[in-house]
């Protein structure tokens, strides 16, 4: 069934819209995960294991959704998790997502593998900015990215720590997904039957990875799979001393993305991080790992009074956000929740997707009898 943006009312609808509007290899790169994709499914199913317990008659005509995250007051307890290669999904790419983040007054992040530059984002948008750092073997590249973030007054760096090697992303093997895309016998029909995407890719600004292109050719001029890039270019010797060195050079808010254990959460506090993202990379790395929501309570209990804890992954509904906040997360973030919308309809799609999430959070808060985020707590939850 042909779907239009006006008929999109939830994440499943945006997924359907993306599937019909972009070539199959691109869609399955967004949609897929590692091995049997069990963890991908569990990330969202985990929220079904507990129920919300509402209160009534609390006078909730006016509510406040604002929180302070990494020293910045944001208007929503939800932000767009940094993701790579966004101009492959839609020609507007990260610029569209940044505009929507600014509109809703929340954090926006770009990846080391972003398709726009640190400078362009800094010069164009006023919303709080996060940079997702992939630690490469090339120390000059790492230093260059950190220095650019300092020069352009980014607010936080999130070091991704769960990509020491690539997960086994089998869908990419079947579709032949690479960056930049290449035509194969298997993908030719899909590119040909999505002429809007193909013409935008061929005729608009050349696809590039600005943070990388002066240091490595892979991904911009040399076609490579994401798996091969991670396995050959990223630093497999990264350790806690690496994080301490980055913290010292950076000197501002540091988030560690990919923390899944209490032990590592405590180490993050010890090395001076100011936030952690409880995340399994959207199920794209270690299949069979726990869902972030399932790990959230024990991590919050261990370090929640010392560091900002962010629940990243599986977020598809406003009620998911409310459950994570009730457990004790400071905020939530997600990738697919906006990437489907970006792929399907660019800035308009992302704006509608975030607008729907905001409406769901607001409605849920009122139905819970809560006027501010600080009123949410575990007293609002019952686990099955």
Order of helices and strands: HHHEEEEHHEHEHEHHHHHEHEHEHEHE
* Estimated radius of gyration: 20 Å
Strand order of the largest sheet: 4-11-10-9-8-7-6-5
CATH top level? Alpha Beta
In terms of structural class, how would the helical and strand content be classed? alpha/beta
CATH superfamily: Aldolase class I
Low-confidence stretches: none
CATH architecture annotation: Alpha-Beta Barrel
Average pLDDT reading? 95
Question: In words, what does this structure look like?
Answer:
The protein is an alpha/beta fold. The chain has one domain: Aldolase class I (TIM Barrel). Helices cover 43% and strands 13% of the residues. The strands form three sheets. The protein has an eight-stranded parallel sheet with strand order 4-11-10-9-8-7-6-5. It has a two-stranded antiparallel ribbon with strand order 1-12. Helix 7 links the parallel strand 6 and strand 7. Helix 1 packs antiparallel against helix 16, helix 5 packs parallel to helix 16 and helix 13 packs across helix 14. The protein starts with 10 loop residues before the first helix and ends with a strand.
Provide key terms for this protein.
eight-stranded parallel β-sheet; 384 residues; TIM Barrel; 16 helices; 43% helix; alpha/beta; single chain
Provide a brief overview of the structure.
This protein is α/β, with parallel strands linked by helices.
Topology:
Layout: H1 11-21, H2 24-31, H3 38-45, E1 50-52, E2 67-69, E3 72-74, E4 78-80, H4 86-89, H5 93-104, E5 108-111, H6 118-124, E6 129-133, H7 139-151, E7 156-160, H8 170-175, H9 188-192, H10 195-203, H11 226-233, H12 240-250, E8 253-259, H13 262-270, E9 275-278, H14 292-303, E10 308-312, H15 318-327, E11 331-334, H16 336-368, E12 381-383
Helix pairs in contact: 1-16, 5-16, 13-14, 15-16
